Amino acid sequence: MIVLPIVERELRVAARRRGTYTVRVLVALAAILVLAGTLGFLTSRGTPSAQHGRFLFRALLVVGFTYCLLAGARATADCLSEEKREGTLGLLFLTDLKGYDVVLGKLAASSLNSIYGLVAILPVQALSLQLGGVTPGELARSALVLLNTLFFSLATGLFVSALSRDERKAMFATVFVLFLVTVAPAVCGFVLAAFVGPFSGPEQWIMGLLAFSPVFGLGYLLTDFGPAMRVPMWPFWMSVFWVHLLTWALLGLTCLILPRLWQVRAKKTRAERLQERLEQRLYGEGVQRRRFRHRLLDVNPFLWLAQRERGKPLYVWGYLAAVTGTWLWGRFSQGDVMLDRNTVVPSLLLVHSFFKVWVVSEACTRLAEDRRHGALELLLSTPLTPDQILRGQWLALRRQFLKPLLVLMVIEFLLVRQAFTTGLGLMCGVVLAADFVALGWVGQWLALTTKHLTQAMLKTLLGVLLLPWVFLFPVAWLLEESLRFRWPESLGNWSPFELRSVAWFVTGLGMDALLGWVWARRRLRRDFRLVAMDRYQPLPASGWKRWFDRAGSGVLPAQTRAT
Fold first, then answer.
1. Could you state, in order of their start, the residue ranges of all structural domains in the chain?
2. Closest residue by Cα to residue 156 from 80, 216, 98
3. Region at 412 (left for phi over 0; alpha for psi -120 to 50; beta for the rest)
4. Distant-in-sequence, close-in-space partners of 45: CB < 8 Å, separation ≥ 6
């Protein structure tokens, strides 16, 4: 008798997959780039070499924690809901398989690459031990926190996937749950401390609630506890224990509810009836719905297909109004703190991140869903051309995001101008608009060429938003050296901050133009019909991609030819 047969099968399949080996190389390369970038930044700031190890440890720990926390949304958020959509989950339960067989099998299949990625980060993080400032105990505790966080994120994704059916909703619900578990204990602790006051010790409230969150272990490792403070270790171990216990509880609950949720119920529940009523109001009723449909169809048929829900622009305006109201409340309650650089930069990054994820979601979802269901093949059999489909998709994005984007650019310009300079405010606005265009083009192309919607969204965000930061320091160095070589007398007029700002502007615009306009737009206009008709079949890999896959899997080109 084979114990956990699905786990064994999935591990055998993953062992023969090239991507299993490629992921380790890519993640290790990314960790090395973060290490090199942090060392370059510390050297340019004149930081003493005795502190380099501590800063590198913190940087890689934050990067690794973010990677582990979001692994559930990438790997497991759609593994069970996909089976429910395709109707194959019920076939598994027609055999003698139990709920834990399916859940653990899906966990093993979807989490292997994430675990390999984390294992690739840990040796690079161990280099901070050689530079000093980090103890072996801290390194071991950081590895424990990262593994615990990764396990919790994957279990959360499985639990949400068991309750969901739609891929995009499952991914966003997983991110929301992870964010809630990470941030909500801190918010509740501070609120209780504010109401209870110093009588009961507010720090005890906060510490007790944060023990249920993975962020407690991260904060404990990032804080410099001096020998004189004598901070005990028991809160750290208590947090690790509670997070681990919560993870197993989520897995156990998923194993229990999955066999009861795969059936398609003929009778609609009250929640489903309420959802249908809400959708009728969102799409319109009677004359209003027909009038709205005719108005969009006269402009572009695909525009109506992508914007049938009339309230989509209102959602973006509501988000922008909520963000603006929150900032105004902070301005009136906290004063000039909201105009400080240390407040403006994180606030704008948070607002931009959510806005850009929303843009990518809308750019990818429509084409990915239509391609998966074969609707694009039907559209292309009509007189509708690929250029008209792309134009309709862009009209839908413009209708939903353009006006809020212009308002956000004005707000960003005013804040950056107040905290920094007018030139940097203009550059931020231009880069925001360029990112919007690049995210639209790259998201549409990857939605057609990637099997899963989640993978298309993550690849778009990584390529357009994170890849420019990899080239930021080389571009800054080239800019400084070119000024020193060509105009050495003008180099003294540039501060290090101004040089990095110009390098960031050039790098961002260059990557947006290269990925969005040159690569994705050209391929969409040329190969749209080909990739739309060939469902789930990836395009032939280029020469460098095939070589990289062989190198990552340990197979040399000569061995491949001989085989």
1. 5-263, 274-301, 311-468+503-541
2. 80
3. alpha
4. none
**Torsion angle of the four alpha carbons 374, 380, 386, 388, in this order, in degrees rounded to the nearest 10:** -110
Helix 79-86 to helix 136-163 angle (10° resolution) is 20
Contact call for residues 68 and 520 (beta carbons, < 8 A) = no
Give the other-Cβ count within 10 Å of 503's Cβ.
21
DSSP designation for 464:
I
- pTM, rounded to two decimals: 0.73
Q: What is the pLDDT of residues 321-353, one digit of tens each?
A: 988 888 888 788 777 777 888 788 888 888 888
Q: Comparing C-alpha atoms, which of 452, 507, 519 is closest to residue 475? A: 507
Q: How far is residue 395 from each of residues 148, 202, 331, 361, 443, measured CA to CA in Å? A: 44, 52, 36, 15, 15
Mean pLDDT for the stretch of residues 397-416: 90
Residue with tokens 């947090």: 239
CB atoms within 10 A of CB 446: 23
Q: Residue range 440-453: average pLDDT? A: 88
Helix pair 167-196, 202-210: axis angle to 10 deg: 160
Let me know how many helices (H) and strands (E) the chain has, helices first: 28, 0
Angle between helices 52-69 and 99-125 (to 10 degrees): 160
CB 218 within 8 A of CB 65: yes
DSSP notation for 377-398: HHHHTSS--HHHHHHHHHHHHH
CA–CA dist 442, 425 (Å, integer): 26
